[in-house]
Amino acid sequence: MSIRFKRPNGEKVRNQTVHAAPTKRMAEKWGEAREGQLREGSLTLEPKAESPVMTVAAFAPEYIAGHLVAELAKRSAVDAVETILRVHVAPFVGRLTLDQITDDVVADLRAKWTRGGYTNPEGTRKIGGTSARKTHNNRLSVLLSMLKTAVGWKKRTGLVTMPCTIRLLKVDSQRTPGFLDHGDYERLVEGAEAVDQRVLALVLLAGDGGLRRGEAMGLNLADVDFKNARMTVRRSVYVKKGEHHEDDVKGLLAKPVPLTPRLLDALKACRHLRGERVLYQDDGSELTPKVVRMWVERAERKAGLPETGKLHVLRHSFCSHAAMAGVPARTIQGLARHATLAVTMGYMHLSPSALDDGIAMLAKSRAEGGTVVARSGSK
Fold first, then answer.
1. Would you tell me which of 248, 259, 295, 370 could form a disulfide with 264, CB atoms 3.0–4.6 Å apart?
2. CB count, 10 Å around CB of 215?
């Protein structure tokens, strides 16, 4: 039997009760009498017991499994979130219930991240402090997403409303990521060529092709169109605990991009019968992040450059040099396979002609009565 009505003060009353009446009419009469008692106040309902609120430690694995894995998030993304929760969140607030993650708790978390000095749960590594806004934002985003998901699953978690307000830190979008100038990059290419043809191909895949580390590791020979000088980046390889996993490329942008002549030659020199990948180690096994770092360090050492082992700086160099050459933003976005133009725009202030072209186009348009004019040099 379900009874629903609204009191004069706007309060909604809902009562569902099982009543074993021998006939339908008797059940209706019992229900009418019960509704009358509720309306006049002679019968009051016991307040419904609230569900206990889950702790952060209890909800974290459910969030990962039910939100990320179930939504088919990339393996690397799932592992990154799991690491943030396991290393940077749960050790400090794991025992708290979700509704206890208040603004002051979040502020205390950020202070611990900034100071560092704590160890991972296994006790094998000491975590250094960081004031990098992007790093803080990554961790805050995970916490924010987890709490929002918990509110959406309120019947399971007991969290009815957001317990805090998490605001991401403002990041300077005009700050150009670190990159090599043209001279240092060419020295690195020469150093890589002197080391090994595979090292040269790796350096050029990032510096002339704009590939990320995982994309270079996962590039197959079948992804390269040697006849038309094109390659299609279809996957990114992610390694965890010695196991290789394949993810979709970042932004899900698997589109063919042209190759520079020297990158095409380097890839031709790497053709082999060892397997499907373009690059393998000496023993025929696939590349790992550690091996990639070692290869880049060898090229840097041969070139007389500081040894960093960072391949991603070559991708930044690819985008930066394209902007310096006056390549339009949309073209760079396509070549670098950026998911949004906003990412590409972080490089465009390096273009020496951007401001001059803008003023020249404005002046020409006004002189012609407001007509649309083409950028200088375009057809």
1. 259
2. 24
